[in-house]
Amino acid sequence: MARRALAMAAGALSKPQLDGVERIIAVASGKGGVGKSTTAVNLAVALALKCKLRVGLLDADVYGPSIPLLMNLSGQPKIDSANKMVPLENYGVKCMSMGFLMDKDAPVVWRGPMVMSALEKLTRGVSWGKLDIMVVDMPPGTGDAQISVSQRLKLAGAVIVSTPQDIALLDARRGTNMFQKVHVPILGLIENMSYFICPGCGQSSHIFGHGGCETTAKEMQIDFLGKVPLDVHIRETSDEGKPIVASSANSDVAAVYNSIATRIVDKMRELASAGAYVTPNISVG
Question: Are strands 157-162 and 24-28 parallel, antiparallel or unpaired?
Fold first, then answer.
């Protein structure tokens, strides 16, 4: 159903610059530590398992790749007859990360041009095959890597992840404005670590504040996609490389991620039907 809906809107959507990939979305945050990578992984798996799409997951955080751990993948990718890397796959998602190409604890001490070269190899140097959607786990911030990905890949949209804290929301606003400046549609804002439910008494506690993301979304006139709780099972399944939408598919938390994934598909269809997509244009000054 979701694949058919996306295909119907494809005529209004500028094609990404990757062979076989129908559309690409970024999962981003203005700062680190808000659970962006965990969110990207669970959304990618939800898009594959719940929405029945052909999904790729690109780890664009060259300095701090976490997809290998979160997706329980290891080893170097094979090289095909076209001299391209073959992505590793788990939970129905094809994955590529710098973490597959380097030692686990090795630091990446690179300047900007080397990072751009690495991102080029992780995208066009990979045999992705046919994908309905690629999810890009972006590095935090609004620097060269973010602009380069936005400019070169013709993103269909960006999902912004934040906690309800004012300091996180300040950076989330900057991230949102960066994507808007390069003409990438904002698919919506996700409030991560929204609330904590005490396993003993069942009471909800808003440890990082309450309602901040919803208020910010209204002020910035973007969609609010949902609230993901601060749940120990998300942490445990992430550390084990078993995304909760796959390992606990019937849980309330999995239902939250599945609902957000469905809303993202619907939002892309709406934007494509409205002719909202344009080629990103970078302007300085």
Answer: parallel
pLDDT in tens, 86-124: 999 999 999 999 889 876 765 665 565 677 788 888 888
Q: 0.85 exceeded by the pTM? A: yes
Question: DSSP readout, the chain?
Answer: -HHHHHHHTGGGSPPPSSTTB--EEEEE-SSSSS-HHHHHHHHHHHHHHTS---EEEEE--SSS--HHHHTT--SPPPB-TTS-BPPEEETTEEEEEGGGSS-TT------HHHHHHHHHHHHTTB---SBSEEEEEPPSSSSHHHHHHHHHHT-SEEEEEE-SSHHHHHHHHHHHHHHHHTTPPEEEEEE-S--EE-TTT--EE-TT-SSHHHHHHHHHT--EEEE----HHHHHHHHTT--HHHHTTTSHHHHHHHHHHHHHHHHHHHHHHTT----------
